[in-house]
């Protein structure tokens, strides 16, 4: 029994989701870096007193899915929190993401008792490491990828721990921007705390806690009921990453999905072993991709929270690249491996739910990081961006072009914002004609983003995929075009670049990323 009838429960659920959305608006509007204020590479969520994900905004799937598994382990490493405490963490082996994704967590106290937590996660444009942007193309251990922050208190009883903040800022290339973005995350937490406190005042603290539990139970019931609509059985799928950034050997993902009337099992036995490069994934990243894919399979009104995952078992083979252990390099797993995991899971779903699943989208986040010294002011800068491409053709129509799909839900940086913020000139920013997979419903087209360095030398890092294995079509649809990276020197001589790597650009040289197109859905009618 609960104090919440179906109508009141729906009101509470929507209020919590609106709170997470408002937190995201505050974070975006108060941040310093273009990566957050223009692209919204950040996410916010609300957890119950047991650190179970209850509500999230429609932000970045790779953030929210991994936070599902990260907040509990983070809090377990600390003494019980007090009002005004704020935890900061980015350690991938605890927080479940790569180092640039810094997570802040704060408790919500009512009448002296913790009733919930709020969290914000944002991709910071630099956290130190061997390359500007902290996404090195050739890292082989976590220590090369940036500053590692275990779970520690950034604020204690409402007071900033200035020594810790100073330590963080001393280890990054752009401390003013990092300080501004961390403050934006703190502002988002304050809004979330205030809104949940208002809900506790409205419903009563005890009733609110009942409501949080009821929302999780509701999602679990909806999930199990929906599973009963699908045929019981086992389906297999397989896909590959182009390479691991260290060798040309493909990295294989194998999956067997078992569907039962009230349960799903995902078994990744047979996937490639741990690799030397940086595509190794911690288990929370795997859970993130599965969580997202389940949301795609189910109906759009299913609240995506921890209740959904009660009906799910995920088996990850020990020693595989999906079970990364310290000190394995992991930075590209967040951007590339999670995308390929989603592709693999959705390919299996398409076999028993063809009317629900689109063909493969671009299957990469096309991450580019650039850093140097801005000749306009003499200060260091770091630019980071993931670039949209083609969405797969869908059962209801063609895929969209030049968009972020699957594990990324960010935006492409506007040309004006990019040129104001950085010493680049945008030479090209346009769709790639002919890159879409053909079919009854065509995939979307990729884009070309070409940047010329103005009056300075810069270091560039690339973390991209689908340069070798193209996005698949479904049900007779064609593959999308592979992506391509290239640079052009001052004489106009062009050189193709690997999907993952780092290089130096001289003044006047151009770096370009051409993103993949989406696969086609269904055989084209002649």
How would you describe this protein?
The protein is 28% helix and 24% strand. It is an alpha+beta fold. The strands form 4 sheets. It has a 7-stranded antiparallel β-sheet, with helices on both faces. Strands 14-15-20-17-18 form a 5-stranded antiparallel β-sheet, with helices on one face. α1 packs antiparallel against α6 (175-203), α3 crosses α8 (283-297) and α6 (175-203) packs across α7. It is globular and about 70 Å long. The N and C termini lie far apart (59 Å). The model has no long low-confidence stretch (mean pLDDT 95).
Contiguous low-pLDDT stretches (5 residues minimum) are none
Distance between the termini: 59 Å
Helix residue percentage: 25-40%
Strand order, main sheet: write it out.
2-1-5-4-3-6-7
Sheet with the most strands? 7 strands, antiparallel
Q: Spell out the helices and strands N to C.
A: HHEEHEHEEEEHHHEEEHEHEEHEEEEEEE
Count of separate DSSP helical elements: 10
Q: What would the average pLDDT be, to the nearest integer?
A: 95
Compute the number of strand runs: 20
- Beta-strand fraction estimate: 15-25%
Our Rg estimate from Cα atoms comes to 22 Å
| Overall geometry | globular
Helix-strand category: alpha+beta
